[in-house]
Structures are given as structure tokens and as C-alpha cells.
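## retry 2 of 3
previous attempt timed out at serialization; input unchanged, resubmitting
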Amino acid sequence: MARRIGVGLVGYSFMGRAHSAAWRNVVAAFDPAVVPELTVVCGRDPAGVAAAASRLGWSESTTDWRRVVERDDVGIVDVCTPGAAHAEIAIAALRAGKHVLCEKPLARSLAEAEEMAGEAARAHDRFGTHAMVGFNYRRIPAVELARRLVASGHIGELRHVRACYLQDWLVDPDAPLSWRLVRSEAGSGALGDIASHAIDLLQHLSGSVVTAVSALTTTFVSTRPVSSGVAGLASRPSRELGASRGPVSVDDAALCLVRLGGAAVGTVEASRFATGHKNALRVELNGSRASIAFDLERLNELEVYEVGTDPTAGWRRILVTEPEHPYLAGWWPPGHVLGWEHSFTHEVADLLAAIGATGSAEAHAVHPDFADGLAVQRVLDAIERSALSQSWVETGLGGAGAHLGTSTDNEEP
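## retry succeeded, writing output
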């Protein structure tokens, strides 16, 4: 009989809904050795969180995250709050011996991320617990296939990487001021919100780390209407006459040149002002023998170009929906495509697999862990320092071979 483990979710809005669906669906797709029970969901509004519990499938609701951490029937604490609460909740859960899944970016600052990663390491040594950060795009089948191809040497010597994440939900200057635009709540703007994903994928796919950056950041709209009930990407333009405006204290866009361990170089770009782009994440790696590219808006596909003498050679499209492709054994027949939400199901499936293997001969770490989240935070911190100093800044990360884990390092493409 499968072991059961209670899950406590803190935050029930955008990310909370996505995580709730993952916890509900993982058993049907992957039959994990450890079965999650949706025990309790937490939010600040009593009526809102009670309604969310009923709608999203949680047994109980509460307005106090401390009650979630203290419960004996909760073994996993899932943190889906704004960034300002990540450190306090995750550290308390780790000290209580709970496994933790925390949304990205790990923290608002490098200091917070260092504290969280240190606490995660101590909790693992003391309790054997796992602490995972929610870079869910690693779990898209096409991305995992790309990683395996690069790790196998398929593209040859890596030369260029480029990662670009573009959105346009802030183009209207009267879109209201949300927590994502306030430094004390979010830590940074496009940089932490979406460049963190691009940087994680760049490092994850290349198997290397960003060692130095030369960057600029900018804020296009310095004030926005203050409006109640605003929830990040759900923000809508505010046209109320006489509405007060508050300061935007984060970046709207970030661009940088990067150096990686080894000889590779690249670029990272992130903007929430890229008119016409809704959720456009693209990562491309150019090697001496081949190139690979992934586009989130075509997430069931991988683009590959291989060097050859055939005059008709060019980029080819791989439809990543075959049963032998990563994660696809749990889903549908070939050609029946997956969506954005499935990456979260794969994420919790890998976390449950690691928890189930704890203490056995198959025990393994689960990635991206808090150390991986800290590695991304070091790059984000270096980008901000570079933008301020208008100079190259080292990240403090080592060369290739530094901590860039994956739960499937030994699998073949």
C-alpha cells in the first residue's frame, strides 16, 4: 500500500491554483509511491480561502500559515505566496522537519536566499527532508529532452547561449500597482519574476553556470494607480478619476551579456513591456556540431539543427509527445499535446519520488533544490550590481561542474 503524506498549501491565487491542480492530478498520471493528501490551504482572507479550499479540493482552510507548519498531519509545505513571505515560511517549515516546495524566485535578496539554502542543508542532514524550488519549466518534456541531448554531447562544444523571456501585461501605464511592482514585496521586477526562469534554464540546459555579467535594467513607468484587490498578472488598467498613484520600485526590463564556465558566452533578456508577447520564453544553445532551441509558446516542440553537408539541411522540429520522451509515459498517445499546467504535475511527481526513496538504496536528491535557487539568486544579484555600476560583475559561482543538479542526470536522451 502506498504511503500517504499531507500537503499544506500557503497561497491560493495564481500559483496556488496551478499547484493545487498538480497535487490533485499526480496520482492519476504517475501512481507515485507516496500519495499526497490535500490537507489544508492557507490564505489571508477567511471567506476567500474557504471558497478556494472547496473549489480546489483542499480538506480544510486556515488564515495562519503557522498552523500549517505545526500540524502533525502535514509533511509537505508548499509556499505559493509573494516573495516577501518565502523565507519566513520555508525556514519555519524546514525547522519543523517538513519537506518544502517554494515558488521562484527563491527569495527577494541574496542574503535571504543564502539563509534559506543553509537552512535546507541543515534540515536535510537532520531530518532527511527535501527542499525544492519551483522552476517548473525544467519539467516540460521538450526541455528535459534538450538537457539530455546536451549532456550526451550531441551539440558538441557549447559556444553561444541566449535566453529571452518577454511579456506585455504592463504596457498600459494605468495598469494598477501590484505587489509584483514593489521591491519590498517582490525583491525585483522582470528580473526576479521572469529572468529567473530564463537564467535557470540557461544553466540547467548548458550544464554550466553564469560566472560574470554586464547588464542594464530600466523602469519605463515610474508610478501606477493604487488599487485594491490586485493580484499580479490579473491586474487590469485602472481608469478611476482621481485615483492615487504609487511608485514602482522595481525594474520593468533587464538585459545582459553573460559569460559561462568554459568558453561559452550568451545573452539574457527579460521584459514585461514587450508589446505583443504574452508569455514568450525562448532558450537557444549553439554548439560546434548542433544547435537546440525551445520556445515556451510551442512547448511540445524542440528545434534542432545539425551541422552537415546536405544543401537542404536546416532546422527540424521534433514533436515531443512520444511515450519514450521524458514524462510522457504518464499521459496520452503520440501527438496528444500537453500544456503549461502539466509541468507542475511533473514537478510534484519528482518531489514525491524523492520523498518515497528517502532512506532506501534508491535515495536521491531532488532538483532544483534551494542550492540551485541560490545559484540563480547570485546571478540576479550580480545583474543588479552590474546595472548600478555599469561594469562587468562576477557572480561568485564556479565554472562548469558547480552545483547544477537534476533528478535525471544519468538518463539517456
